[in-house]
Design a protein that fits this description.
By secondary structure, the protein is of the alpha+beta class. The chain has three domains: 14-92, Phosphorylase Kinase, domain 1, CATH 3.30.200.20; 99-274, Transferase(Phosphotransferase) domain 1 (Transferase(Phosphotransferase), domain 1, Orthogonal Bundle), CATH 1.10.510.10; 280-454, Methane Monooxygenase Hydroxylase, Chain G, domain 1, CATH 1.20.58. It has helices at 55-67, 99-106, 111-130, 182-186, 194-208, 218-226, 241-250, 261-266, 280-296, 300-320, 324-369, 374-391, 396-416, 419-454, 459-470, and strands at residues 14-22, 26-33, 40-47, 77-82, 86-92, 143-145, 153-155. The longest helix is centred in the last third of the chain and has 46 residues, at 324-369. The structure holds adenosine-5'-diphosphate and magnesium ion (MG). The site of magnesium ion has 5 residues, from loops.
């Protein structure tokens, strides 16, 4: 009998409408509940014969546990059913398609957008890690988007792969080796750390448009997986140092040298602490209270730094707030704090100018002493270049990079410097550190200002569009 429902599985209480996709183990359909709510859901049909024999029972127990899991970035499992052939998972419907399509229709994602997505993915993985659940099949096809207007990542297909060997009885690899950690493919011995490798591949693909092992043939792919060459990151697009550092540490072939889960969650580029959530506003407010106190006491530098820390939480709080009126109220406050921070900046800056003049004399002395020390001389040159950059409008980030570069060198040289030179060097390092810190704050104030102003335009989807058309 031909008809709209022809060929679709039948399921108690639901009407299946269309096929949404199929993956490694299952086919997923869109459906709605027959009950009065007519709720739209996604139903995943897993053929029992695709499971390891002993696993069906385990899987049912596992599903029961997963049913209890609620997380904003994990696809919710609402219920399940089964019959003689299939297991049906009834899930929250995600209208935005999967991350693979999202990336490829835009070619690459800007670092800012990739970072928001990575925070969301990391928060889901942290939640699972705390419950001892690994994913084992992380890839862009298994990461869904709640909608395209306001895309939120939803991790799908998890806690599931552990019941299925990546190798079937005929020793054929089921998953995609493009995303699997090398130890999974080569040694067939692996643990939760494979998920960190896959996160690295996903981030690489989001930023560079293709996964690191993309190949023209299977033999080329196999060679890339089995080799022990370090994964090289393309030079373009330009990315922050933190971002490159994270990629390199996730894409470490040896699982014992790969970044750990804890270090991943705490990595400065991921920065889960400042991810928009229900606590952002409270933390921002607490910091403002401290800032106001320091301000009243006349400690401009401390107040400025506290205002900046508060802004670090206000911006995520703004992103988190959905109520238009409350959003406006927060925005107005942020505007006030930014203005006060600007005033404080002017105060701190004039005392900084005085420091800068003092600093020139320290630098002059050091330069005298460094005449036959090319490395020290070079590091001091970089520091001067940083100061010059600082004077140029809009070049704060470049200046900061130069400060950090010169500080890295000077700190190394400090350890081996003798007596008087060491003292001077120490003073100079302190000065440069203070200047770098001050610059960081300036950058933060500017960014908070910018973010608060552009928030109406829905930062995420807007910046995806604008930066993609600019490429
Ligand atoms: P498999 O275990 O077979 O890989 P997945 O859960 O990854 O199955 O689903 C396969 C595809 O079906 C996904 O890549 C996605 O395109 C689509 N899909 C899965 N779950 C949903 C959902 N909850 N909402 C919308 N589409 C979904
Ligand atoms: Mg899948």
């Amino acid at each position: 009998m031909a008809g709209p429902g022809w060929g679709l599985p039948r399921l108690d209480g639901f009407i299946l409408t269309e096929r949404l996709g199929s993956g490694t183990y299952a086919t997923v359909y869109k459906a709605y509940a027959k009950k009065d709510t007519r709720e739209v859901v996604a139903i995943k049909c897993v053929a029992k014969k695709s499971l390891n024999k002993a696993s069906v029972e385990n899987l049912l127990t596992e599903i029961e546990i997963l049913k209890g899991i609620r997380h904003p970035h994990i696809v919710q499992l609402k219920d399940f059913q089964w019959d003689s052939d299939n297991i049906y998972l009834i899930m929250e419907f995600c209208a935005g398609g999967d991350l693979s399509r999202f990336i490829h229709t835009r070619r690459i994602l800007p670092e800012k957008v990739a970072r928001v997505f990575m925070q969301q993915l990391a928060s889901a993985l942290k939640f699972l890690h705390e419950r001892n659940i690994s994913h084992l099949d992380l890839k862009p096809q298994n990461i869904l988007l709640s909608s395209l207007e306001k895309p939120h990542l939803k991790l799908a297909d998890f806690g599931f792969a552990q019941h299925m060997s990546p190798w079937d009885e005929k020793h054929v690899l089921r998953g995609s080796p493009l995303y699997m950690a090398p130890e999974m493919v080569c040694r067939r011995q692996y643990d939760a750390r494979v998920d960190l490798w896959s996160v690295g591949v996903i981030l690489y693909e989001a930023l560079f448009g293709k996964p690191p092992f993309a190949s023209r043939s299977f033999s080329e792919l196999e060679e890339k997986i089995r080799s022990n060459r370090v994964i090289e990151l393309p030079l373009r697009p330009q990315l922050s140092l933190d971002c490159r550092d994270l990629l390199q540490r996730l894409l470490e072939r040896d699982p014992s040298r790969r970044i750990s889960f804890q270090d991943f969650f705490a990595h400065p580029w991921v920065d889960l602490e400042h991810m928009p959530n229900g606590e952002s506003l409270a933390r921002a407010t607490a910091l403002v209270v401290e800032a106001v106190k320091k301000d009243q006491e006349g400690d401009a530098a401390a107040a400025l730094s506290l205002y900046c820390k508060a802004l670090d939480f206000f911006v995520p709080a703004l992103h988190y707030e959905v109520d238009a009126q409350r959003k406006e109220a927060i925005k107005a406050k942020v505007g006030q704090y930014v203005s006060r921070a600007e005033e404080l900046k002017a105060i701190v800056s004039s005392s900084n100018q005085a420091l800068l003049r003092q600093d020139t004399s320290v630098q002059g002395l050091l330069r005298e002493m460094a005449r036959d020390k090319p490395r020290l001389l070079a590091a001091l040159e970089v520091a001067s270049a940083a100061m010059a950059k600082e004077e140029e409008a809009g070049k704060e980030q470049d200046a900061l990079d130069l400060y950090q570069h010169s500080l890295g060198e000077l700190l190394l040289l400090l350890a081996e410097a003798p007596g008087r030179r060491r003292e001077l060097l120490h003073t100079e390092v302190q000065n440069l550190l203070a200047r770098a810190e001050y610059l960081k704050e300036q950058i933060k104030i500017r960014e908070s200002h910018w973010e608060a102003e552009t928030l109406d335009k829905e930062v995420l989807s807007e910046s995806v569009r604008s930066s993609c058309t600019l490429q």
